[in-house]
Give the backbone structure.
Amino acid sequence: MPGDLHNHSTCSDGSVPIHRIPPMAARAGLSALALSDHDTFLSAAYCYAHPEQEGVKLIPAVELTGYDYERQHRVHLLCYWPQDCPELRAHCDTMRRRRNECCLQSARELEGMYPQFRTEQALEYAQDSGVLYKSGIMQALHELGLCDSVYGEVYHYLFGWNPRGVVLHSPEYPTVDEVLDIARAAKGVVVFAHPTVYKSMPLVRQLAAEGRIDGIEIDHPRNSEEDKAECRALCARYNLIVTGGTDFHGANSAHPHPVGTCTTADDQIRRICGLARQRQGRLGG
């Protein structure tokens, strides 16, 4: 049975507590599940502590955020089987601090716009992650009846990129090279996430040709068919791992998709686990 290798919980910006996601995967008939929260080791630590839940093998992962300053867009890299190391710990701590600074500033500005809103209410959604995300702010606004959805018209007015949202404050991200170095230090298996989302195909081509990524996430709800076809060709040309993941965020999504919507074949999961064992000198995993 296949596995879903891209999922988010309340350890970052998902709406579902982490322990509730593996049962969803079991009911969907999956054999494996990666919990891959943003720039945190929390979900990986959960998987290491619970290698199997309800018959589903849990694969530790972290989704690392970088920035392609040449092309001016964010980049997400999925790192499977990361090892706790100083470089990864420093990255997670830095991103936690930067995200909190930005969203706390946004929240203070929103208090001036909406008398009903208080930052403390939004912080209730940051209890598991320790990070105030824009989705947490939007959940609080939704509860107050100030918007009709988490990622709707109000979100784009407040936090959109183009036009720029009225309270948007963006953290500084490390470069793609720096993030790749962090993944290498963690001895993880690196898969380029959803290349269509940030229009990343030129960078995918470059990194694939340079041998700096181990795979590409092809089966994803937001990848275009054109990009999927090219990514398959790149994987075949450079012998890269082919993955799929739903990018599950629960209710914190403009277009919700249940766990198991997009999947990774068993043989590709074995490649990921085998490569991680090779890099880390492990017998298990």
Notes: The chain is about 40% helix and 15% strand. The chain has a mean pLDDT of 97. The CA atoms of residues 100 and 242 lie 34 Å apart.
